[in-house]
Amino acid sequence: MPESNDAPPRASGQCLCGAVRYEVRGPLRPVIACHCTECRRFSGGIWTATAARREHLTIHGEENVRWYAYSDRARRGFCSTCGASLFFSAPAMPHMAIAAGTLNKPTGLKLAVHIFTAEAGDYYLLTDDLPKITDGQHGLSIPEDRV
Ligand SMILES: [Zn+2]
Ligand SMILES: [Zn+2]
């Protein structure tokens, strides 16, 4: 078990039914909203995610996480009981993306950027002032918060 697990959690969260709970002991990435088709189908809407280094993330009930690999580049984790979209992981990423909607409040986080806006759903408008990247990149690295 990593030493960092003795520290109080920076954040915690869970799926809808509570079979999967998690804690993060380390910095979190600002939230990214991904509008790509794959993320929309996985999440049922706009995929908003923070991210944490894998060694800072403790998952309780990990046996209840089912992983789905849409491609060989990434896999997506969801609760096998309630179906909640929880995680996004790619071999090239040193961190795990965590669905922002599953975090317990207050998160202390802010939405920072929209990506893959060219694939956005046609039933909503992006009217905020945040940067909008038409294609983008999953696992985007942007500065983590300071705890
Ligand atoms: Zn669940
Ligand atoms: Zn996406």
Task: Describe the protein's architecture and organization.
- The chain has one helix spanning 37-43; strands at residues 11-14, 21-24, 31-34, 47-53, 57-60, 65-71, 74-79, 85-89, 95-99, 111-115.
- With 147 residues, the chain is mostly beta strands.
- The chain has a single domain (8-119), classed as Metal Binding Protein, Guanine Nucleotide Exchange Factor, Chain A, CATH 2.170.150.70.
- The strands form two sheets. A seven-stranded mixed β-sheet has the order 6-7-8-9-4-3-10. A three-stranded antiparallel β-sheet has the order 1-2-5, with no helix packed on it.
- The chain starts with 10 loop residues before the first strand and ends in a 32-residue tail after the last strand.
- One zinc ion binds at residues 34, 36, 38-39, 47, 116, 138.
Summary, kept brief:
With 147 residues, the protein is mainly beta. The chain is built from one helix and ten strands; from the N terminus they run E-E-E-H-E-E-E-E-E-E-E.
Topology overview:
Layout: E1 11-14, E2 21-24, E3 31-34, H1 37-43, E4 47-53, E5 57-60, E6 65-71, E7 74-79, E8 85-89, E9 95-99, E10 111-115
Parallel strand pairs: 3-10
Antiparallel strand pairs: 1-2, 2-5, 3-4, 4-9, 6-7, 7-8, 8-9
Bound molecules: zinc ion (ZN) (2 copies).
One zinc ion binds next to loops.
